[in-house]
């Protein structure tokens, strides 16, 4: 579960999570991106976890821990969508 550092403007901690039962076909992508824009954009990632998965990370020559380390300390600049995909 990623931890988000406190926002200087809001003074509160936001935790990014989605219940397991909310899948792509049950929660429209636009709603997820809207949630991310409200609660995540502009915040700094305090810590991150990425499970080691060769089918995800192996194709690009990296590992889960490397991705987690690269995300830690970075500021989220935006959230977007293209079709059924979001980032």
Topology:
Elements: E1 3-4, H1 29-39, E2 45-47, H2 54-57, H3 64-71, E3 81-82, E4 85-86
Antiparallel strand pairs: 1-2, 3-4
Relevant terms:
single chain; 87 residues; alpha+beta; two-stranded antiparallel sheet; flat
Walk me through what this model shows.
By secondary structure, the chain is α+β, with helices and mostly antiparallel strands. The protein has one domain. The protein is built from 3 helices and 4 strands. The chain starts with a strand and ends with a strand. About 7% of the residues have low confidence.
Order of helices and strands: EHEHHEE
Number of domains: 1
Distance between the termini: 16 Å
Radius of gyration: 14 Å
In the sheet with the most strands, the strands line up as 1-2
Q: What fraction, in percent, of the residue positions are helical?
A: 25-40%
Mean pLDDT: 78
**General shape:** flat
- What can be said about the biggest beta sheet? 2 strands, antiparallel
Contiguous uncertain segments of 5+ residues: 9-14
Q: What class do helices, strands and sheet pairing give? A: alpha+beta
Number of strands: 4
User: Approximately how much beta-strand content do the residues carry?
Assistant: 5-15%
The number of helical runs is 3
């Amino acid at each position: 579960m990623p931890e988000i550092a406190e926002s200087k403007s809001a003074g509160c901690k936001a935790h990014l999570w989605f219940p397991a039962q909310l899948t792509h076909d049950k929660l429209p992508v636009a709603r997820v991106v809207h949630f991310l824009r409200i609660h995540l954009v502009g915040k700094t990632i305090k810590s991150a976890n990425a499970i080691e998965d060769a089918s995800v990370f192996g194709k690009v020559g990296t590992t889960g821990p490397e991705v987690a380390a690269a995300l830690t300390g970075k500021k989220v600049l935006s959230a977007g969508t293209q079709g059924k995909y979001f980032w």
